[in-house]
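Quick question: what would this complex look like in 3D?
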Amino acid sequence: MATAHLIAVGSSPLGKTDLPGRDLFSRALAEAFEDLPDPADVVDGLYVGAQSERYENQIMQGTLMAEWAGLRNVPAERVEACAAAGALALKNAVRDVRAGVHDAVLACGVEKMTAGGTEGATNALGAAFERALEQRSGITAPATYALLARRYLHETDATERDLARIAVKNHRNAVANPRAMFQQAVDVETVMGAPDVAPPLKLYDCAPVTDGAAAVVVANDEVAADLQRRPDAVRVAGVGSAANNLAVAERDLTFVEGANVAASTAYEDAGVDAADVDVAEVHDAFTVCEALLAEAAEFAPEGRGIETVEEPGDRSAGWTDVQINTSGGLKARGHPIGATGLLQAVEAYEQLTGRAGERQVANADTALLINEGGVADAHTVAHVLTAQ
Amino acid sequence: MTDESDSPMTDSDSTTTGPLAPDDITADSPFTLPGFFDALAAGKLVAAHCTECDTHLLPPRPACYGCGSRAVTLSEQPRTGEVISYTSVTRPPSAFDHVAPITIAVVELDSSARLTGRVDASLEDVAIGDRVELRVRDAESVDIDEEFDLSYEESWPLHVFELL
């Protein structure tokens, strides 16, 4: 099996932008290829994660993005798993490189979420939930996660204030991330005093509606070595994915089993343990997700995921020293659905190559990424990345 | 439409214990959504029941997510259960705007089957552990925007929970 490396990354501005999807992609691509030859001379195929065609009334995103990258007559496919689409694109690119199908593949993701306003985004995201019983009852993304949060607060010692502290921590991290949508801190009182979205979740418990794109180049040993200007590629050491149930009612509300399977598979593939992970980007679409995923990734003992906000020395026994969502996470970096999994990879790349500036974690050499789609672990993709 | 079942369906009412044959999977069978909603409109909430691991599956489907077995049969469900979790949708999809806020709960029926549904009560009146009963209403009476339904969903009723 060939080794897959991440040799270059790029992202577009994140937020409410004046750029449509293809132009957001162009921005991400331009950054990723700043020091590289033309994409057509580097990659042999493309995967693009895109959640919904409702935003721009455009499917065939594989063909479109390939065209905008100057690629023609190569495999180029759109992949979909709601918010896990980005990591699914990365997973497919890694699979192709490992299998020797391609020497290098472009994995990208794009979403123009603000096109139809909050209402448009609510309606588009609603399609990710089970139709017959749940959509027809009027459910939304925040409501599905509120059902998890309510039960988590019921079964553990965690409080709404503990969840608020996760949003505060991620906003604080985003201050040091020039890519982030919200580069400003918030305090606990602001989070606690914000309007309800779906109780117990309030405005700051929820990731924003975001326009954005990201692109990363996955390559084998030969291509990585040829591109001398990028001698510090990171290795995609482990991959795991799992589909759990679609309906929120049919899952374990306080343990995201599918995410645990995906992370465990990625650890095993990489030959590492949870304790080896220095930095992790986990899918905090809603604050409770970060607590749940810290437990599912085996960083935290059951019911103690909320200690993600504490410095390693201040956490309960059984917690690892991992730093979670140094980018600001989905909450503060932004959550352009199909691009999010790749934005997680961008942060890991920067941490593992010492490019993370003021948010750099010292001696970071192993990263875990967890990207989810649908409610919680309806679909999870996990990657382990390691420094060379 | 009736709200109460006068002839409870049991496992023995099912003509199959799976795996389903292709001919078992028709719009008359509760193993399909049209058949499931026809039964619900007639007052019967029908789940699939896995004869291998005892998991109940709502709506019914041809295989058990609990153990992978296709040895599934049909089982009429009790109407009563308890609230496992709940919230309120303050900004619903457009088709539900006029009925917001919507109280939503995950309910575990007395059979252990779980389903999500609206609760006919305001958020502050609901708590985890509350006993509820499922009621069947036609789509018009719950006032969902007509444009929400796909053509084949128009005659499907909607379940709503009432506090006991």
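Answer marked as accepted. The domain at 4-116+209-226 of chain A is CATH 3.40.47.10 (Peroxisomal Thiolase; Chain A, domain 1).
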